Write a sequence for this structure.
C-alpha cells in the first residue's frame, strides 16, 4: 500500500504553537518514520491533540518546520487521513459518506461505489450500507469513519482518541480495524488515554508533557521503565488499565 | 377582474418565485461567508444582518427607478408586471435568507470543519456540502423569507401598480379595500392571508420532522 | 426543490402568456378607480377592441409624473392647469375633455363650524378656519388636493401660512384621508364618487354641495410618442377615441351608485 518512496518520514523541527500568548506546543523535534505504530501519550492539556493537528495540517505552527518526504503538496495531503474522537458524518447513507470522500479524492465515478463497498466490507458494515449514517450506533459510526479513511488508502492514519466515547465492546471492534490498518502497512499515529490500548496497538510511545516531547521509547520499555520523571509520575497517576 | 382565487394564486406565485430565486442566490452566499476567511468579513456580516430590515417600500422605490422607462432597465418593459414584483421581493428576501443561512452554517462549521478539511473539502466546496447537510434547519430561513414576502405590501404596490386583474395580490388588495373604507372585506382577506401562512409553516414543519426522523 | 422549479416555470409561462395580450397602461387617479368607474367602463372597451386597459391608480401629480417618465401610454386625470402644463411641456400630445364629477364637503354630524346645508364653499371654509374645526387634507399633489388649495385661495386664506393644528395634512389618497376624517370627526373635501362608495363614514355627512366651484373636470391625454417612442400610440388613441365617442360617453353616464349618476360626460362641449 505505501510506496517505498512515500510521504514519510515526517520531520518535525522545533515546532511551536502558541495561542493567546500561551505556548501549547513548545519546541517539539521528532522524526516520524514509516513502520512502527506511534502512540502519543500525555496528560490532559499536554498538547496531544494540537500536535496531531499540526502534523495533519489542520493548524499552522507559530514557528518551526513540518517537513514531509515529498515536495508534492497534493500528494502529501492525499496520503493522510484522520479520525476524530467524535465521528463527523454527513446526513446521507453510510455508503454515500464513503463515496463523498472518494469523490473529493477524484476517484472516477464508475469506481466509487465498488471501492466504498469494499471499505464497508473491511470493517463489517456492509449490512448497513444504505442506512442513514447518523442513525447508526456510536461504535458503528466510528467504524464507518474508519472505513471512510480506509477507502482512501492513506499512508498515514491519524487517530485522536478514537475510542474515548465508546463502550468496551465497540472499543474492541475499533481496535481490530486499527490493527488491520497497521497490518496493511499504514502508518498509525494515535493519541489515547487508554493505557491498555496503547500497549495493545502501539509499537512506540511519544510522551508529551507541557508541550514538549519528554520521552520517546518502544512501548514495552516505556511502561516498564520510563526514563523521565514526568512519565513515571504520569504512569503512576493515570487511571486503571482497560 | 381579479377574483379571490386569482389574487391568492398570484400572491403565492410571486412570493414563492422570489423565495426560490433568493434561496438559489442567498444560500451559497451565506454559506460562503460563513466558511470563508477574508478581510472585512465582520463588516459584511454586520451589513448582511442589517439588510434583513430593509424597508419594503424603499426596495420598491429603488426597483421602480431601475425598471421605469426613464431608468436603466426600462427597455425591458417589466414595470407593472408580476416579474417586476418577483424582482423586488427577491431583493427584499435575499438578505434574510443569506444572513440566517450564514448563522446556521457557521454554527455547523464548528462541528464539521476539521473533518471536511481533513478530507480535502475547502472553501466553497465545503460550504455547499454543509448547506446540503443542514438543509432541514435551513427550512427555517427559507420560511422566514417566505413570510416576509407574503406579508409585505410596500414593494409590490410600487413596482406592480396594484392593477386589477394583473398585479393585484393579497396585501395590495387589503390595502385598497382598507383605503376604500371596506374594513370587513379587508379584514377577511387578512385572515385568509394569515391562515395561508400558518398552513405553509405547518406543512414545512411536518416535512422537516419527517426528514429528521429519516436522516438523523 | 423540484416542486419550486415547476412553480416558477408555470408562473413564467403564464406571465409570457399575459405579455402576449394586447394592452395599454393608463395612469389615473385613486379617486377615479375607487369610484368603481373603471370596473364598469373598461370591460366594454375591451370587449369591443380586444385591448386590455391596465390602470395604475395614483395621485394626479404621480400619474402625470408617470406620463413624463414614459411608464404610461395614456393619462386620465382631473387637474386642468396641471394637464395643460403637461401638454405644453411636450409630454402629452393633446388634451381631450371627457367628463366631470363634483366634490362635496363632508363633516361631522355635530358640525362645529356650523356650515351644514350650505351652498357656499368659500364661506364654509372661512367658518371652518375661524372655528379652528379639524380639517383633513389629502396633501398628496392630487387633483383633489389641488382643488382644495384653490378653494382656500378663493376664500382669501393663505393655508400654507395660516394653518394650525386643526389642519391635518395626511399625505394620502382619498379613502385613507376619509378614514382619518371619520376617525377624528374632521371636515374634508372629497369627490362624490369616493364618498358614495365609502363604507367607513362614522359620523360624517355631507355639509356643503352643489357649489359650481366644486365641479371637477376630467381630461385624457396620449403620452407623447415623440418623447417616448415605445408608447402604444394606436391602442392609446383607440382608447381616447372611444371614451369621447357617443358610445363611450353613454357608458360613462350609465354608471350609477345606488341609483345616483356620478360622472357627467362632456366631451367636445
Amino acid at each position: 500500500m505505501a510506496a517505498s518512496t512515500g510521504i514519510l518520514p515526517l520531520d518535525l523541527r522545533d515546532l511551536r504553537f502558541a495561542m493567546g500568548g500561551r505556548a501549547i506546543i513548545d519546541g517539539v523535534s521528532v522524526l516520524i518514520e514509516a513502520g512502527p505504530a506511534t502512540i502519543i501519550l500525555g496528560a490532559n492539556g499536554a498538547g496531544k491533540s494540537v500536535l496531531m493537528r499540526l502534523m495533519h495540517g489542520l493548524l499552522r505552527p507559530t514557528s518551526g518546520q513540518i517537513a514531509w518526504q515529498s515536495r508534492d503538496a497534493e500528494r502529501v495531503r492525499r496520503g493522510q487521513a484522520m479520525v476524530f474522537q467524535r465521528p463527523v458524518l454527513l446526513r446521507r447513507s453510510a455508503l454515500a459518506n464513503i463515496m463523498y470522500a472518494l469523490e473529493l479524492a477524484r476517484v472516477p465515478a464508475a469506481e466509487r461505489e465498488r471501492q466504498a463497498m469494499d471499505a464497508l466490507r473491511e470493517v463489517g458494515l456492509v449490512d448497513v450500507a444504505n442506512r442513514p449514517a447518523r442513525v447508526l450506533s456510536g461504535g458503528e459510526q466510528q467504524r464507518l469513519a474508519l472505513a471512510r479513511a480506509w477507502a482512501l488508502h492513506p499512508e498515514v492514519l491519524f487517530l485522536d482518541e478514537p475510542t474515548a466515547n465508546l463502550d468496551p465492546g465497540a472499543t474492541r471492534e475499533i481496535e481490530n480495524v486499527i490493527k488491520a490498518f497497521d497490518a496493511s502497512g499504514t502508518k498509525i499515529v494515535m493519541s489515547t488515554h487508554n493505557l491498555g490500548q496503547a500497549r495493545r496497538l502501539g509499537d512506540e510511545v511519544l510522551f508529551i508533557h507541557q508541550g514538549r516531547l519528554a520521552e520517546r521509547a518502544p512501548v514495552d520499555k516505556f511502561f516498564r521503565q520510563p526514563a523521565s520523571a514526568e512519565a513515571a509520575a504520569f504512569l503512576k497517576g493515570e487511571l486503571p488499565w482497560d | 377582474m381579479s377574483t379571490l382565487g386569482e389574487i391568492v394564486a398570484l400572491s403565492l406565485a410571486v412570493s414563492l418565485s422570489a423565495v426560490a430565486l433568493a434561496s438559489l442566490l442567498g444560500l451559497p452566499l451565506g454559506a460562503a461567508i460563513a466558511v470563508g476567511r477574508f478581510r472585512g468579513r465582520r463588516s459584511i456580516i454586520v451589513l448582511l444582518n442589517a439588510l434583513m430590515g430593509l424597508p419594503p417600500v424603499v426596495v420598491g422605490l429603488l426597483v421602480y427607478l431601475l425598471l421605469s422607462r426613464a431608468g436603466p432597465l426600462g427597455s425591458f418593459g417589466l414595470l407593472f408586471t408580476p416579474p417586476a414584483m418577483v424582482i423586488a421581493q427577491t431583493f427584499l428576501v435575499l438578505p434574510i435568507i443569506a444572513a440566517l443561512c450564514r448563522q446556521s452554517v457557521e454554527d455547523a462549521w464548528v462541528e464539521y470543519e476539521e473533518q471536511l478539511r481533513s478530507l480535502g473539502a475547502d472553501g466553497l466546496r465545503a460550504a455547499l456540502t454543509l448547506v446540503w447537510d443542514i438543509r432541514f434547519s435551513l427550512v427555517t430561513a427559507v420560511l422566514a423569507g417566505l413570510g416576509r414576502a407574503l406579508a409585505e405590501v410596500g414593494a409590490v404596490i410600487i413596482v406592480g401598480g396594484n392593477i386589477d386583474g394583473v398585479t393585484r395580490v393579497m396585501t395590495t388588495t387589503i390595502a385598497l379595500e382598507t383605503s376604500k373604507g371596506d374594513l370587513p372585506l379587508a379584514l377577511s382577506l387578512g385572515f385568509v392571508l394569515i391562515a395561508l401562512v400558518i398552513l405553509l409553516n405547518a406543512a414545512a414543519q411536518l416535512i422537516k420532522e419527517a426528514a429528521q426522523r429519516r436522516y438523523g | 426543490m423540484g416542486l419550486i422549479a415547476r412553480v416558477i416555470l408555470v408562473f413564467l409561462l403564464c406571465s409570457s402568456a399575459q405579455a402576449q395580450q394586447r394592452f395599454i397602461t393608463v395612469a389615473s387617479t385613486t379617486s377615479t378607480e375607487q369610484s368603481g368607474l373603471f370596473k364598469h367602463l373598461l370591460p366594454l372597451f375591451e370587449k369591443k377592441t380586444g385591448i386590455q386597459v391596465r390602470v395604475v391608480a395614483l395621485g394626479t401629480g404621480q400619474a402625470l409624473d408617470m406620463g413624463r417618465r414614459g411608464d404610461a401610454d395614456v393619462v386620465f386625470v382631473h387637474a386642468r392647469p396641471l394637464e395643460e402644463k403637461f401638454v405644453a411641456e411636450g409630454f402629452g400630445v393633446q388634451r381631450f375633455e371627457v367628463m366631470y364629477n363634483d366634490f362635496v364637503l363632508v363633516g361631522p354630524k355635530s358640525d362645529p363650524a356650523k356650515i351644514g346645508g350650505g351652498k357656499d364653499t368659500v364661506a364654509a371654509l372661512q367658518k371652518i378656519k375661524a372655528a379652528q374645526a379639524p380639517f383633513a387634507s389629502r396633501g398628496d399633489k392630487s387633483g383633489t388636493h389641488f382643488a382644495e388649495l384653490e378653494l382656500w385661495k378663493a376664500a382669501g386664506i393663505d393655508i400654507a401660512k395660516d394653518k394650525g393644528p386643526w389642519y391635518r395634512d395626511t399625505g394620502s389618497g382619498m379613502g385613507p384621508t376619509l378614514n382619518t376624517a371619520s376617525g377624528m370627526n374632521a371636515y374634508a373635501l372629497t369627490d362624490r364618487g369616493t364618498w358614495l362608495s365609502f363604507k367607513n363614514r362614522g359620523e360624517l355627512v355631507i355639509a356643503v354641495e352643489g357649489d359650481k366651484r366644486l365641479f371637477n373636470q376630467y381630461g385624457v391625454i396620449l403620452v407623447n410618442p415623440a418623447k417616448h417612442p415605445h408608447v402604444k400610440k394606436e391602442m392609446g388613441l383607440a382608447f381616447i377615441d372611444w371614451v369621447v365617442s357617443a358610445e363611450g360617453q353613454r357608458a360613462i353616464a350609465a354608471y350609477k351608485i345606488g341609483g345616483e349618476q356620478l360622472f357627467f360626460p362632456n366631451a367636445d362641449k
Notes: The radius of gyration of chain B is 19 Å. Residues 96 and 187 of chain B are 28 Å apart (CA to CA).
